[in-house]
Every structure is written in structure tokens, then in C-alpha cells.
Amino acid sequence: MARVCLITGKVPVSGNKVSHSNIKTKRRFLPNLQTKRFFLAEEDKWITIKLSTEGIRTINKRGLYPVVKELRAKGVHI
Predict the structure, then answer these.
(1) Is the pTM of the predicted complex or chain greater than 0.70?
(2) What is the CATH number of the domain that holds 40?
(3) Residues 34, 45 contacting (CB under 8 angstroms)
């Protein structure tokens, strides 16, 4: 699943590009995804996660291990 944040579930959404003359054409708004490596100290290994910047803030706030444990409970392979 490309362009999906594993933590927040953000996906691309569609909308309109509006020109100066108010002509509307379809476009996509993509989430700000980053591929980031984290060191999981409890398992003594590095993990790579594709997540949005809001997901990075979630990990900073809650901690890496509780977030990974919650993802594994949902069935995500990490």
C-alpha cells in the first residue's frame, strides 16, 4: 500500500485546483510521508516505517514501543 501512513492512516485525497479565472480541475493532495528508521531498544533492532510527519510527532509523544505494540495488535508486520 503506497502513500499510506502506517500510524495515522492518512491517504491521498482528491480536490480541485482552482486557477485565477476560477477554472477547476481535479488534483490529488498527498500526505507528507517520510521513510524513517527507529531503534527499538526493547528488541535491540532497527525498524523502518513509512509514516507522515504527524506520525513522527505521535511517536515522539507516546514513545516508539507502545505505538509498535498497537500496530502489531492490528496485524501490521513490523
Answers:
(1) yes
(2) 2.30.170.40
(3) no
Q: Quick one: pLDDT at residue 78?
A: 87
| % of the chain surpassing 70 pLDDT | 99
| pLDDT tens profile 32-67 | 999 999 999 999 999 999 999 999 999 999 999 999
Written as nine digits, the cell of 11 is 491517504
Domain span at residue 60 reads 1-9+31-78
Compute the distance between CA of residue 78 and CA of residue 73 in angstroms, rounded to an integer: 11
In a domain, 17, yes or no: no
Domain count, the chain: 1
In which region does residue 58 sit, left (phi positive, over 0), alpha (psi from -120 to 50) or beta (all else)?
alpha
Which residue in the block uniquely carries the three cell numbers 507522515?
52
Integer Cα distance of 36 and 10 in angstroms: 16
